[in-house]
Amino acid sequence: MPEESTWRSVFRNDLFKGKVALVSGGGTGIGKSIVIELASLGATVVISSRNEEKCHKAADELNALGFSGKVAAGPSTNIRKEEDIQKLISHVVERYGALDILVNNAGGQFISDSADISKRGFQAVVETNLQGTFLMCREAFNQYMRDNGGSIVNITIGNRNGMPGMMHSAAARAGVENMTASLCVEWIESKVRINCVRPGIIFTESGFENYGPAGEYFLEKIVPSLPAKRLGSAEEVSSAVVWLLCEGAGYVTGSVICVDGGGSYVALPLVEIEDKTNLPTYGYLPMKAKL
To answer: pLDDT of 230-252, one tens digit each?
Structure first.
C-alpha cells in the first residue's frame, strides 16, 4: 500500500468532507485501500471486522499516515450474526451522528471442487457473503438511510462465465448482485443509491496466503488467461468504489462495475478437462467439427 505522502487520489480534495462511512473488512487488502481513499477525501471512516484488535491496529497505522483521526475502529463484528451487525450500525450512528456511506467489503471463501463442498461449508460461505451483506444493507437503511439517504457499494467477486473452484462464493456473490438490483428500486424513494463493484484478480498485501498452495495454483492458471496479462491493483478497485459513492454518479444505481482487465469475458481455466469427447453427439457432425 503506498504511503499517504506519495499516494494521491484522482478525485478532488474534500470530496467527502463531513461524510461518515463504514467499510466492513476495512483493515486489509481492498478494504484498506477503500478506507485510505475515503479518508484522504475527507470522510470519517469506521472499519469493522471480526478481529477488533486488527481494526484498531489498522486505524492507528492509517491515522499515522496523516489522516488525523479520520479512521476509527468499530466493535468486533461477525457479519454472520444479526445482533453483531445491529450493534455495529447503532455504534456508528450514535457515535458519529450519521451513516452516509456503506461499503460491504467483508467476505470469505475457500477453493474447492464443488463435489467436495459440504452442506455446512456451502452454508457458511452463503451466510457470510450473501446474508451478511443483506443484513448490513438492511440495518444501514433501517437505522439511518431510510430518512436521510445515502450510498452503498457491495464488493462482489465472480465471473460472467462462472467460477470453477469457488462455486459457493460465486453463487453467493451473484445473489448479492441481484439483491442490489432489487434494492435499488425499493430504496430509491429514500434517496439511497446501491451499486456493486466486481473486482477481478487483484494484488493485495496479503496476496493469496489464505489459500495456501491452492492460491499459487490459482495464480499460475489464471494470469496467462487474462486479456490484461496482469493482476489489478487495490487502488484501481477503490477508485471505482469512490466514483460510485460520489455525487458525480448521482444517476447510477443498481449497476455492476467490473474491475478485471477484461477477465469477465474469458473462461477461468481452473478445471482440467481431458482431451477426449465429453458429450455425445446428436445428429451428423463432420470429423473436422470434432477437432
So the answer is: 888 899 999 999 999 999 999 99
Instruction: Count other Cβ atoms within 10 Å, centred on residue 253.
Output: 20
Residue 3 placed within a domain = no
Tell me, yes or no, whether 263 lies in a domain: yes
Residues of the chain predicted below pLDDT 70:
1-7, 159, 205-215, 218, 267-273, 276, 285-291
Give domain status of residue 258, yes or no.
Answer: yes
Measured between alpha carbons, how far is 228 from 248 in angstroms, rounded to an integer?
28
pLDDT at 221: 75
Q: What is the pLDDT of residue 215?
A: 67
Pick from 40, 32, 25, 46: nearest CA to 1: 32
Specify burial of residue 255 (Cβ count, 10 A radius: 0-12, 13-18, 19+).
Answer: middle
C-beta of residue 19 within 8 angstroms of C-beta of residue 44: yes
Number of domains, the chain: 1
CATH at 157: 3.40.50.720
Residue 24 CA to residue 136 CA, distance in Å, equals 9
- Structure pTM? 0.89
Vertex 11: Cα angle to 27 and 29 (nearest 5):
20
| Boundaries of domain holding 203 | 20-290
